Amino acid sequence: MNIAIAGLGAIGGEVARRLLNDAIPGLTLTAVAVRDRGKARATLERMGWSGPIVDVGELVSLADLVVECAPAALMEEIARPVLSAGKKLLVLSVGALLPLPELVELARKHGGQIIVPTGALLGLDAVCAAAEGKIQSVQMTTRKPPNGLAGAPYLVANGIRVEGLREPLRVFSGTAREAAKGFPANVNVAAALSLAGIGPDRTRIDIWADPTVTRNTHRIQVQSDSASIDMTIENIPSENPKTGRITALSVIATLRKLHAPLRVGT
Q: Does the pLDDT at position 78 exceed 80?
């Protein structure tokens, strides 16, 4: 299977490295799309790769599956040609999917597929299973070091400053849909959780800027007719403080499942 990557930051760079090291059998990196081609070319040449660096619209002709790990604002531009061609799109900017339900219909119409990896969360298999029954409530609480939230549109719009905090501050409480809009680079996890469970308007999330933590921490609490779920994960940040190291590894694990002779998990 030919794989293209849109975005070569903390996630895309690690996925490219694994593909180029033949760490995922059956998958080949065939193209990359980035804003800064010069920087990307230098990075990829250090990895020993001299393949095409193209515009996002060209990825569809060069791959069977596109890994989207670009800024959320580019997600639709990347997604539409891929899904219209009946191909697969692995999405990291999950929050950008919520206002675009027509992309799911586009995938259905043309035989494409949108794949959402677990990312920085845990237990999405359990939530998906519970959703086959009846879920009464889903609550998520996210705590991040303040610099991991700085600059979020919701904070800017509401004049909330997180610089210099000495104690935890709850900066948001609302639905997953509202959180995805206000924190597009921070809480894609909430969008993924909502899609696995009871939707973005019934999934609740509290977001804390917390100077007492050094890891991005997410707690999920689910009440359903099949299980009571209470899970916590503490993610070590990557070089990008908004992104945990485990997010890239989740993408790699998802790609590995595509051709694995043994597949564990839903």
A: yes
User: Could you tell me the residue ranges of all domains in the chain?
Assistant: 2-120+246-257, 124-242
Burial of 256 (0-12, 13-18, 19+ CB in 10 A): middle
Q: Specify whether 218 is catalytic.
A: yes
| Spatial distance between the Cα atoms of 33 and 186, rounded to a whole number of angstroms | 22
2-120+246-257 folds as Rossmann fold (3.40.50)
Query: Which tens digit of pLDDT belongs to each residue from 129-180?
Result: 999 999 999 999 999 999 989 999 999 999 999 999 999 999 999 999 999 9
Give percent of the chain above pLDDT 70: 100
Taking the whole predicted model, whether its pTM rises above 0.90 is answered as: yes
Calpha distance 209→150 (Å, rounded): 9
Quick one: how far is CA 206 from the chain centroid? 19
Beta bridge partners, 170, equal 208
Q: How far is CA 91 from CA 88, 137, 194, 226, in A?
A: 10, 25, 15, 29
Q: What CATH fold (topology level) applies to the domain 124-242? A: Dihydrodipicolinate Reductase; domain 2 (3.30.360)
Sheet containing 216-224, strands listed edge to edge, beginning at the edge strand earlier in sequence? 169-175, 203-209, 135-144, 216-224, 228-235
Q: Could you say which of 218, 233, 238, 255 is catalytic?
A: 218
As given in the structure block, the two tokens for residue 174 are 């609302």
How deeply is 214 buried, as exposed, middle or buried, from its count of CB atoms within 10 A (0-12, 13-18, 19+)? exposed
